[in-house]
Amino acid sequence: MSILTLNNVSYRYDGTKKNVLKGVSASFEAGKVYAIVGKSGSGKSTLLSLIAGLDVCTDGKILHGENDLKQIDRDEYRAKGIGVVFQAFNLITNSTAIDNIVLSMQISESNERDKKSFAYELLEKVGIDKETADRKVLKLSGGEQQRVGIARALAHNPNIIIADEPTGNLDTDTENDVLKILSLLAHDEGKCVIIVTHSKKVSSIADEVLGMKDGKLTSVNQGK
Amino acid sequence: MYIIQNALKNVVRNKGRNILLGSIIFAIIATTVVALMITNTSDRIIDEYRGQFGIEVTIERNTQTFVDMRQRGEAAMGISITNEQFIAFADSDLLQRSVIMNSAMIYSETVTAIGQTGELAAGHGFAIAPTMQMHGNNWEDFANGHRVLVVGEMPVRANEVVISEELAELNGISVGDTIRLFGTVLEPAAAMGFTPPVFDLVVTGVYFCAAESVGTWGSTTMIRQNEVLTVADTIPGAAIIARYYLRHPSYIDAFEQELRAKGLHPIFDVNTDEHLFNAIVGPVEGMRGIVMTFMIVVLVLGAIILILLSSIAIRERKYEIGVLRAMGMKKAKVALGLWFEMITITGICLIIGIIVGSLVAQPISTELLAQQQETAQNIQDQFFAGREIAGLSRVVNDDPITEINISLGMDTMLQIILISLFLASAAGLAAISKITKYEPIKILMERN
Question: Could you tell me the residue range of the domain that residue A20 belongs to?
């Protein structure tokens, strides 16, 4: 069953006439890993921003369940409905790893009683020990920061995880670890994981691969 | 709740930037504390002075009007204020208090005045020249300490008097003795058969006199120790001297209207003795003015610097705000967090500022007041320089306020807190309004 549906989605930036996305339609199900692939400028990152609720489409609809993202409180959608893993990590850098996770839980008004303990558990799950968790983000390696980013995306237990080039800044070993985590989230925990990438390795773990070119969805292939 | 916790953590996390902001806020608050403490204390002192002494009203004949009337052939010479009018004028709600005094020139066959060398004789147009003065209800010197009762009691009824130690000693007069004094009669009146009024008076007390005489002008009546003091009823027919003290200087026009309605002739001008008032509270008002101006300049400049610094500081945190927004934090909560950070910094500075400001306010005010006092003294010296020659003395209680005890009252505290809140809010909101206009995607894209 689809938990996220794109209906003829188009987008153009303010002050421009050219559509970056042109009538994109797709649906995403829980328990699967999706890879959106394409060259730079194909519109895949823009599509991800729209799915993440960071922007709204110019035409068409994006439905989270049955809710149109244009109609709902997108702050709340970002806080509770979706987890985003950014290529540039986008963590609060002068804060500790654990504080980043706890803050995310607080923003989403998580019911978790002992938020800090839960945050340590999450971090451990993505391979960050307690000592590292208590360090400031600025003092963590790129791989560690990305793991923290993934943990933060999971902190409020969303049913959709989207990741924008999640391994773009990582070495091969760390890349493998991160992909393994994302794969497990979909297949073991039933999340819908959508990864934007132009890495073949990343798309190789996907259950479905969506190709994009010039703002259009050109192909949908079964992965693996 | 987490907004507050996060804001408190951010205050520590960004301590370098916050110390800079805090230093500016501290400087503004400390200056404001000093300024407000001084101005509020000054206001209180001025109000207390007004409440205690009132503003003296002067009713003087206008020389120009007098000349104009004479040139027009109108009878200006005989226009005066009657005793009944003086008493009626005192009946006003606009007055803080009034003093009705009277006075008579006197001589005595049995009491020798200090400085009196010869026998009683005609002089100055009188059948017998006066050697002393008798004042009714004139207790001002007792109030200001220039006269002190050393023996006996003050007069409370008609025909009771107090005299100076010197006069008592010279004439061997003791408390309880009765002395006989005479009022003066002009020579023409004496020729027509008028006899001088006789006063048989009981001495109820003896006073020490430190009040200085303003020259003798060849007459013993000018020697202050020759003044016989009594209640006004002792000399009912004597000319009245009235002093009126307004509750507030602004009441002068209304009071003048009352006096005109009670028959005061237009030849008389009604004014407040602003010079006297200014001589007393002028240094304090001067100091207050300087401090207020300084405070306004500091507040305006400080607020501008603070807003600029805060805008720069918030711009540096644009990325952090973008991340928070991307995580789903609402604009209002981001703004509340930033505002609370500013309030926390301001709160810390407020406590330190109040402590430091309170410590330095007293020495600063003392120094400023001393400077103002010096300036006021110079002006006053110039004002009185020519007048003392003309027989005018400085009014005894015109001593300026030379010391004020600065204190931090609740009203001052409240004003400081409100100003601090305003500063923090202005600085915070100016910056927040800028940053919250951006969508998170734009901030993050710029960053990336």
Answer: 2-222
